[in-house]
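To assess whether the prediction recovers the assembly geometry, we first specified each molecular entity separately, as shown.
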Amino acid sequence: MPGQTLSPAKTRSPAAQPPKSQPTAPPKPKPGVSAVEMGARQREISVSEFFTKNRHLLGFDNPRKALLTCVKEAVDNALDACEEAGILPEVVVKLEAVANGGPPPPPSQASRFRITVTDNGPGIIRQQIPRIFAKLLYGSKFHRLRMSRGQQGIGISAAGMYGQLTTGKPVQIISRTSARAPAHYFEVQIDTKKNEPLILEKKQIAWEFPRGTQVTMEVEGRYQKGRASVDEYVEQTIIANPHVKLTYATPEGETKEYRRTYDELPPSPREIKPHPYGIELGMLLKMLHDTTSHSLAGFLAGDFSRVSPHLAAEICKAAHLAPRTRPRDVHGQASENLYKAIQSTKIMAPPTNCLSPIGERAILSGLYQQIKGDFYTAVSRPPAVYRGNPFVIEAGLAYGRGPVQAQADQQKKAVPLAEGETDQGDDRAEARFPAARW
Amino acid sequence: MPGQTLSPAKTRSPAAQPPKSQPTAPPKPKPGVSAVEMGARQREISVSEFFTKNRHLLGFDNPRKALLTCVKEAVDNALDACEEAGILPEVVVKLEAVANGGPPPPPSQASRFRITVTDNGPGIIRQQIPRIFAKLLYGSKFHRLRMSRGQQGIGISAAGMYGQLTTGKPVQIISRTSARAPAHYFEVQIDTKKNEPLILEKKQIAWEFPRGTQVTMEVEGRYQKGRASVDEYVEQTIIANPHVKLTYATPEGETKEYRRTYDELPPSPREIKPHPYGIELGMLLKMLHDTTSHSLAGFLAGDFSRVSPHLAAEICKAAHLAPRTRPRDVHGQASENLYKAIQSTKIMAPPTNCLSPIGERAILSGLYQQIKGDFYTAVSRPPAVYRGNPFVIEAGLAYGRGPVQAQADQQKKAVPLAEGETDQGDDRAEARFPAARW
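The predicted structure of the complete assembly is given in tokenized form:
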């Protein structure tokens, strides 16, 4: 019932004339609510309730984008887990249109989908499964400074919550940590009032795979091709991750196999300490308060990247603070002086092994596999630093149609096109999904 | 040190040649982290930590926007509190550039500002002050269905947290609920690890005002004129809220008085129940679970807008469910049937007294006051409904320069402009800040 119009109500009567200036009487209070009554209404809002109302902040703006977000969150988790465990990832993505009373509709008409993502990763220990999938802001990657796809501990549980909200269905998880361990099956939902998992079902089951995790969600969604579609996401994931073997079962019943074209994991990123240049004053105060160091110099050298004991002493001197000052005693103007001393001291840029670039060889490998062109290039720039955080830019480019395709086009051109007819659409589709890969 | 370039590290060596196809060996696990080790690293992330990293989601993208967001959150709270208490609002906004070692810089150069917003509202009871200003997701307006500026219980505490992070300074609050009650002074910060307030100072003080709240924050910011500036926000607030008396002390030391031009509060909006059309399946399930009604028909008639007992019976019948079914027993396919029955039953649109339109008279009044033009118009459309939520669109338009300004321009034009010279800048400034208001 979008945009339905009602009869006007409670609007002040329209004024065609400008309002006459009114005598400005002193404001007299209307009967209203008192401070005590207002105070009694104050309460905590759970983060799940907040993101139920504000789901657009997490990528669930509309059914089309929501479907993509759900797939992406599950694949991100699968790849992160595999790489962290040193396992070359094998991922299966399955998308099915779900009947909503009556026979299953064609995918382009469907409004409900079942998403299943299976990986060969390390698996998840039983105790952690409910919270990982049914509690927002729970995770292992938030506090560490190193590159990973997921970071916030909110993605997969938000996807599950979106499913719960739109279809009422729980998230189903199967996970197994080794061939010697049993596989565990869970059905979980979020108790949105508390942001805690509700376990609807848990049991040991027989599972065909020796190790890995499978997550299944049923969500409201819309399946379309083209920009920002699940299909495009899968292709791009494969280009950027040629070390991944990915199988994609489309809602149309097609199974696309993307084989691994690069048999090496990217170098494992290392966790680093924060760089002094990237710290805001408030964060510095918090670190001074929380540190286990007993001296300011020890704190500077121990809790940051690239601060040697010698440099720590230099910073203390510039801030007019004794190196043996207790960190907790540094606040107010002293902390501001320390902050400025840090900014004006020359400190080496942070280490960049917290990054794991794809690398030029691997990007090229991904491009060859996915895109048929005449010319390919790729570049991994040297790492750079923004606000103390290292980052790296990598780019790949494929150009042209490839010799085979160009030849095919020439033959096709022999048959003249009718007015307004175009072969562009076909070209594009074939360029993205070459029949024969090389 | 933004964008500083480092020597390359950890990047695979560039390949000018396409990589030779490699023998696809079975993936052999590298030494990595086990499921148990990963599980041990999982932990809760507090909502304060999340929004410290993701402050752009709350309007703190950059220093300029952050300054505006802080002012807006404080003014929103002031106006909401006054209106809810039935008090014609008088608000004072004060912006000061803060010295950061050395004399205070000119406002356009300053990077730190002190924001003080004072209102004549109902005040806040002492016990609630710390959590309202130093706990994210705490408030009185989140769960109710009625119009207000603030909704989420996150705005003012996020502004305080931003100040804490960028300047290390606590939020200062003075509040008093009546002339017979003492004024309370607080200094609070957020313990971001727990998302709970830390009270640095609390005491009773003498305060010049008989009732109201004052909040002071020190934040990193940038003060500029023009689009999305604090100055523009203040002007627009006055146009849209002609029942507000607002004083704005600019960082340049100017004091702008915007007098009240409409001596009536907008009609107080009423809280409504959710409309059945606006409920998603997951929410329906939650309501079925949480209701205090003992029968399905009672639940439908009692917990929703516009569902009479007669209509409730009709919905039950369409869903093939007995009206006396216990709400908690409705799940699975039965709940889907109920959901569909609701969608296919004709239900009157929701009441719209949860809205409080400004009204055409008041919009015109605001425009006359703020903008000098030849032609004015305003319209309040009838309320409409989207996803069960009533909304209303109101618009006002002022056009032209006004007779006085046009005359002044003519006189000015007598002095010919030099090539490339323009008087547009001046015009615009004067049109927005007419020297003599009428």
